[in-house]
Amino acid sequence: MKGMKRILIKQMRNEWRDNLWLVLALSIVLIAIWILSLVLWGEIEGIVEPLGFDSEDVYTLKVESLPGESPEYVDYGEERIAMEKEDRLALMRQIRQSPNVEAAAWSQNFIPYDLSYWGSAIYLIDEEKDSIGYMGNFRRGSPDIARVLNLKSHSGKTPQQLAGILSKGELLVSTTYRNENTRSPEEMLGRNVIDGGDSLSRYRVADIIDNVRRSDYEIPWGGVVVIPIDDDDPGDVWDIIFRVKPGKGAAFAEEFDNTPAMQQHRNLYLSRLTKLTDRRNKTLGEADSTVRSSVGIMLVFLVVILLGLLGTFWFRVQQRVSEIAIRKVCGASRGDVFRRILSEGLILLVMAVVVAFAVAVPLVKYGKIEALAWHTLTPLFVAGAVATVIVAIGIILSVGYPAWRAMRIEPAVAVKEE
């Protein structure tokens, strides 16, 4: 066996010109698969992370105000603030009293898929001159927001228990991503904090939840801070988000259309009844199309590569039919011949991997290509391993069939044809 390996290496050295071009071709193929894999992973990497909420059976409504020239408009006079508050609470009561509704909450920047970001930070009160703080997307909601979105607690608390935390005026913080210039959620847990944008607002961080992300694909750069809205005094909040009982979405929509009291109370009215999954499809429709196109391009590219490898190695094996016959005459088994041919292809692949790494690593490390400017080199090595496995499988398939056919030819026939 060792003798065969030495002979193989010697043979490959003698054919170095042909092998050099094949190594370069394999290197280009590896780099191409590498780059396409990284770009595709950059588009879809978020799908492996938890969304942080459950969108099924969730709907949204918009609180709007009649214009002053409307014949239904009521002049509130000096009582405008108090009466608008009554209007809001009346509309929310109607939603919550529906037999089709499981939970409803006020929302300010808490509706998923709106892609908004209200960035700020909370800082530890008992930490002298805390200049780091915890950075996150500030999402405000009344306590039942935890039940509406089924927020996921890291300590095992139920959404009902999380709602209880928010009803006490305490905060929730989430896991963080890709932001080293922030405190971890664990550092904030159980501590008293202030809002960086409003130093008079003081809270206690009571639990850690999954990051409530803005979309299925995006990996957020920071965390989330859940700040409670007073259910009895929501202020100038214009969004309601609610969960219907399983399978009751159509029933609620019919009820809403046929119940004027549910739609309007004096100057305020509810509109834009939207299912959260429909909002998701509308917001991410273009991203979905891009991902489908990228996957399609990747698959076509891989098929082309496989056909190219098949043609290349088929030709190489066909050139060696007489050599295979002579080796069989000299006592080599079919397994010996197959391993020799396969070993040659894999040795060339190893050389190509070295060349591809030498080219690809600097591209990613120094960010020469924006799509490849990853924060760590881990995706590069993972994509490189995937590319190597794909090409290795292609070589095995490309070598296997023509080698099997060549080994079936009788030695006398093979030498005669040569």
Note down, in words, how this protein is organized.
The longest helix has 44 residues, at 276-319. Strands 3-4-8-5-7-6 form a six-stranded mixed barrel. 51% of the residues lie in helices and 17% in strands. Helix 9 crosses helix 12 (378-408). The chain is α+β, with helices and mostly antiparallel strands and 418 residues long.
> How many strands, which pairing sense, and closed or not: the largest β-sheet?
6 strands, mixed, barrel
Placed side by side, the strands forming the largest sheet appear as: 3-4-8-5-7-6
Q: How far apart, in Å, are the first and last alpha carbons?
A: 27 Å
Beta-strand percent range:
15-25%
Overall pLDDT: 82
Helix content: 40-55%
- The best one-word shape is elongated
Order of helices and strands: HHEHEEEHHEHEEEEHHEEHHHHH
Which class best fits the helix and strand makeup?
A: alpha+beta
Oligomeric state as shown: single chain
Count up the helices. 13
Secondary structure: number of strands: 11
- Give the radius of gyration: 32 Å
Spans of at least 5 consecutive residues with low confidence: 1-6
